[in-house]
TrEMBL record:
Keywords: Cell membrane, Membrane, Transmembrane, Transmembrane helix. It comes from the Bacteria. Belongs to the ABC-4 integral membrane protein family. This is ABC transport system permease protein. The lineage of its organism: Bacteria, Bacillati, Actinomycetota, Actinomycetes, Micrococcales. It comes from Isoptericola halotolerans.
Length: 917
């Protein structure tokens, strides 16, 4: 009972240390419980985001077969369905049981393990024939009309009949060759027209009307009669992605033929199966990943790989089998690659603040024991055991820690309202117990004695143990870093651990090693300063240097916390700049200039129209000269050659990230050889049919040009003697005014669309924004910001706690010196000496960590999925943000110095008697 009373009196008499412990516990619980949930939500959102951006063709599970399902064993792929041998020349074709086959597909999906069964949606299928030419409609501008017969079990559910009726099955000749003219020129069987329904858009394009009959170019196919016109209920539905050419026909303009139009028409499935000589059945499961959690993505990939590697028979005895394939496999691999990069970066960002949190917790526990020292010494003198003394402060830590942890956990649920796992609760509980453990450890015999650290007289054995521990930490840091660098990039999409332990351990050990080195280097440097200052007038500098060496504020713990905090903040800024710079490089590299125009033939008139667009400073057409062979000795390489105005291209790409450096040199012949910039690992001298070629620069890819395994960029004027021209260009790179804003770009794009309606305009800033808007990129940006903010808070807390811990000893010295005539304002100088050397050391060590850790991350983790590229991004530094970080830390120290100096002046009278006793 007396124990509880003592704890209560401590909390009421001096609540500051308890509040400090509570703040640390709450912050630790908030971070450790929220971060895993936030990352899990980020991963789930990224999968949904990637799936939503991809088309249904790219993600759905699809199977294409040459058999029409629903006939059971009565279908032979090379012959079609078995017809009723009734002796009649024409019979009603059997209707395939497509509903039964779809039910078999549904059962097959339900039999799969979770989460695959949940991802596979309602199956569907369409049966299609090959393109068949039909007769032209007089007066219509279509030179080559054609149709594709198509049917499916749910086709009617996706359309609204505008006029007419739905097609019915017509009679089919038992022997289709009877439709051919005999010796008398008359066929033995003349089938009735095949009934079809068509979209209103297709009918308008072909010039068909309701009831019109159109002969086909296939002698074994009867004419088709349009019996119904329909409109799609949802023209953007995924169904039409799997059943193209139906809502709107395909229109191709051919210079030799003219206008070629192909339209899919809907017919009764029985007719499609019976009349089509080479049908194809497209079966698909729509994919829905919205319910897939982060933990289910990897099992889903494994299950999907197994599902797509197996040939399935949905209905026993049916000739149609399922051979599924899905682009979702590649999408999941890409998402898991992004996840690996995000997890590694977040883990690296997390270990530093967590280490700093532990250090701040130890400082707060020492502050608690310092404030309770008199009472605890008195209790100990009256017979209390060491365990009982520890129990007092441990119970106080428990009383403030558990409620603070609950508050941190609740706040985390408000920030990230996702399901709370048992592991997160356990980690939060450990954070709640941390203050009790730290306070109990700080209340040992050494913690209850006020002493000067330089007069401890530590035995040689203690010094040897400390040196051994420090050497071990430095060795471990060097070893883990060497292993991570020697192993190279670890890419395990779909298998293995989410985070490589080496990537987590190496940065933490490097930071601790840097703090230990800083702690060893600061005292000798200060000792030199002390000797220099001893021979100069002025007490404050000498006294400050002496106090740093003899009684440092906090010792190793605050130094470690500062190094970890500054190192994490610097690493965050460097990694954030690296990822963003990589995104910019990839976005710009895919476009190649401020704007890219592709699509139409860019003749002189079109180029002049582009030059007239507001804000355009340069238009550089690029001509594809085709594929050519390069020879060098016995080696022969086939490359794609692009010709352009090299000088104009160099001007448009000047200063752009990733642009070739020697584009302008392509206008100068290289000793009789054609100079070229190459992509694809080409270098040196080569020979073509037109003459020698010298590669003046080899790059990974040619910005703005179509990707190619091997390509050459040459100047159009010089290349005329080497390569024959291959028509007009279809691609142009545009430069805009310096400082063009988003509205300027939008205006230019509108003007281009008005002058060239069929052109496709690409803007690198749009691609950059799209990449940065993804959940992974935006979540990682948030993680960088949180890491920097948390580091700032921990740095401020470290400085404040270190100054408060050193406050009593400092005030005793200052009171005595004030009685001896210490001038006003000297307190600030002494306080500054307590913090500035360690702050400078933390900045230097943190700068080293901020440069080394990103290098380690890039060497061990593939971050290219986060930037949208194929190569890891180069390291990038943002000097402005790094300078702001340094200024922020110095500002924190300056504020702490002012506050501590003011507090010291207020307590002069209070400590005068104590200091002179």
């Amino acid at each position: 009972m007396s124990l509880l009373l003592l704890v209560r009196r401590h909390l009421l008499a001096s609540p500051g240390p308890g509040l400090a412990l509570a703040a640390v516990a709450m912050l630790a619980a908030l971070v450790t419980s929220t971060a895993p949930r936030a990352v899990a939500v980020l991963h789930a959102d990224q999968l949904v985001h990637e799936t939503a951006l991809a088309s249904a063709v790219a993600t759905d599970v699809i199977s294409v077969g040459l058999a029409v399902p629903g006939y059971g064993e009565g279908y032979v792929p090379s012959q079609g369905p078995t017809l009723d041998a009734s002796g009649a020349p024409q019979v009603r074709p059997p209707s395939p049981d497509l509903a039964g086959y779809v039910a078999g597909l549904r059962d097959l999906a339900a039999s799969q393990p979770e989460p695959l069964a949940e991802v596979l949606g309602e199956p569907d299928l369409v049966i299609s024939g090959t393109r068949v030419g039909v007769e032209r409609v007089p007066g219509n501008d279509v030179a080559s009309p054609g149709i594709v017969l198509r049917g499916g079990p749910t086709a009617r559910d996706h359309v609204d009949l505008v006029t007419g009726r739905w097609p019915e099955a017509t009679l089919v000749p038992v022997d289709r060759t009877a439709m051919l003219p005999g010796s008398d020129g008359v066929p033995d069987v003349v089938p009735e027209p095949l009934e079809v329904a068509m979209s209103t858009a297709s009918a308008a394009e072909l010039g068909w009307t309701l009831g019109s009959v159109h002969a086909t170019a296939d002698q074994l196919l009867p004419p088709v009669e349009l019996v119904g016109l329909w409109e799609p209920r949802d023209a953007d539905a995924d169904y039409w992605v799997h059943a193209p050419l139906a809502v709107t026909p395909e229109v191709v303009m051919d210079a030799n033929v003219g206008k070629i139009v192909t339209a899919a028409v809907l017919a009764d499935p029985a007719v499609v199966g019976a009349w089509t000589s080479a049908p194809s059945t497209r079966t698909w499961y729509p994919v829905d990943t919205r319910a897939v959690t982060a933990a289910e993505a990897m099992p889903l990939l494994a299950q999907l790989r197994g599902f797509t590697a197996t040939v399935w028979t949905p209905v026993e005895g049916d000739a149609a089998v399922l051979e599924p394939a899905s682009g979702l496999v590649a999408l999941l691999e890409r998402v898991l690659g992004q996840r690996q990069g995000v997890d590694a970066v977040v883990a690296v960002l997390a270990v530093g603040p967590l280490g700093a949190l532990v250090a701040v917790l130890l400082l707060a526990a020492r502050l608690l024991v310092d404030r309770r020292r008199d009472a605890l010494v008195l209790v100990r003198a009256r017979g209390a055991s060491g365990a009982q003394v520890r129990a007092v402060v441990a119970l106080e830590g428990l009383v403030v820690g558990l409620p603070a942890t609950a508050a941190g956990l609740a706040a985390g649920l408000l920030v990230v309202p996702a399901p709370l796992t048992a592991g997160q609760v356990g980690v939060a509980l450990a954070c709640g117990l941390g203050p009790a453990v730290a306070a109990g450890a700080a209340a040992g015999p050494g913690g209850l004695r006020a002493r000067r650290r330089d007069l401890d007289g530590a035995p040689g054995r203690y010094r040897r143990r400390r040196l051994t521990a420090e050497v071990a930490v430095v060795g471990a840091a060097a070893g883990t870093t060497a292993l991570a660098l020697a192993r190279g990039v670890l890419s395990l999409p779909g298998a293995g651990p989410a985070v490589d332990p080496l990537v987590v351990a190496a940065p933490l050990l490097l930071s601790v090693a840097a703090a230990l080195v800083a702690l060893r280097l600061v005292p000798p440097v200060v000792r030199v300063a002390e000797r220099v200052l001893a021979r100069r007038p002025g007490l404050v500098p000498f006294l400050g240097a002496a106090r740093v060496r003899r009684d440092a504020a906090g010792g190793l713990v605050p130094a470690l916390a500062l190094v970890l905090s500054v190192g994490v903040a610097a690493s965050s800024l460097v990694l954030a700049a690296t990822v963003r710079d990589g995104v910019v490089r990839e976005a710009w590299g895919s476009v190649g200039a401020d704007l890219r125009v592709a699509g139409p033939l860019l003749d002189d008139e079109a180029v002049e129209a582009l030059r007239a667009v507001s804000g355009v400073t340069g238009v550089v057409p690029v001509t594809d000269l085709g594929r050519h062979q390069l020879r060098s000795g016995s080696e022969t390489v086939t490359v794609t050659v692009y010709a352009t105005d090299a000088a104009a291209l160099a001007a448009v790409q000047a200063g752009a990230p990733g642009a070739p450096a020697r584009t302008a040199d392509l206008t100068v012949p290289a000793g009789g050889a054609l100079p070229a910039v190459a992509a694809g690992g080409l270098s040196g001298a080569w020979t073509t049919a037109g003459g020698p070629v010298t590669v003046v620069e080899d790059v990974d890819e040619l910005p703005g040009l179509p990707p190619s395994s091997a390509a050459l960029l040459v100047d159009a004027d010089l290349a005329a003697g080497w390569f024959a021209a291959a028509g007009s260009p279809r691609l142009a790179l545009l430069g805009l005014d310096d400082g063009a804003t988003a509205s300027d770009r939008a205006r230019a794009e509108r003007e281009i669309a008005a002058s060239l309606p069929t052109a496709v305009v690409d803007d690198p800033s749009a691609g950059e924004e799209a990449l940065l808007a993804s959940p992974s990129a935006s979540g990682l940006a948030t993680a960088f910001a949180v890491a920097v903010a948390l580091s700032a808070v921990l740095s401020a807390a470290t400085v404040a706690l270190a100054l408060v811990l050193a406050g009593p000893a400092r005030r005793r010295v200052l009171v005595v010196l004030r009685t001896l005539g210490l001038p006003q304002g000297a307190e600030r100088g002494i306080v500054a000496w307590e913090t500035v050397p360690w702050t400078v050391a933390a900045l230097l060590a943190g700068a080293v960590i901020g440069g080394v850790v990103p290098v380690l991350v890039l060497a061990a983790v593939d971050l290219s999925p986060l930037t949208g590229g194929h190569e890891p991004p180069p390291l990038a530094f943002d000097a402005g943000w790094l300078a702001l970080l340094a200024a922020g830390l110095l500002a924190v120290v300056a504020i702490g110095t002012l506050v501590a100096g003011a507090v010291g002046r207020r307590h002069d009278g209070v400590h005068l008697r104590t200091a002179t006793d």
